[in-house]
Request: fold
Amino acid sequence: MHSEEPTPLKIHSNQIEAAGISDPGRVRSENQDAIYLDHGGVFMLLADGMGGHDRGAEASTSALEIIQEYLQPEVIAEELCDITEGSGVPTEIVCLTSLVDEAIRRANDTLYQRNRSENLKRYIGTTIVGMIIPEGENILWFHVGDSRLYRLRDSGLTRLTTDHSAHIEWERNGRLGAEPGKNVITRAIGPSYSVTAETLWDTRQKGDMYLLCSDGLTDMVSDDDIARILNDGGMCRRYARA
Reply:
């Protein structure tokens, strides 16, 4: 959902307790973020649109509307029936990875075709970060762009995603050449013909806390401050407790 005003959401299920809020902050008049919390607590999504004003909000909202369709319980159950054991990866993770790939592909196709058909000079697009908590002990997350997922475990904060940005590539290449801006992303849904999400999984532990956030938070608040706020029991933008 998208709103120009702070929009708190709360979910309580057997799996998790989750809360989310979307806020334009003190500098910008518009908010291009969109968030989606599944009522059953199975998954949550956050997107940060780009393209200027309402078009950025349009991109993020459209992407979430498409992606959430692929992560509904009945869709997951049907996909599980078609998967055979034997890869060494838990069946539910194989299933979810396949669904995420399909969802990202369709969302990208939709926005890309919209860019082409409307002959936009400034293409719309969006980043995405998502977390899925199936039954059992495993958790899967995925992202495109620089929206992030953090995990707080035993008071220690870990960033689980790596930004798809020109600055990260510059660091990986030995910092050669001029330093690019930290907000120049190299992967997004919509601007290019194709895009893939980076998908990872792990085993969750009791008491884990997860934070999904856009650069609207991380540009303003350091990782150390995020860790302090979460350890103090505050809600920092968006969190989900496993």
Remarks:
- The longest strand covers residues 43-50.
- Confidence is low (pLDDT under 50) at residues 235-242.
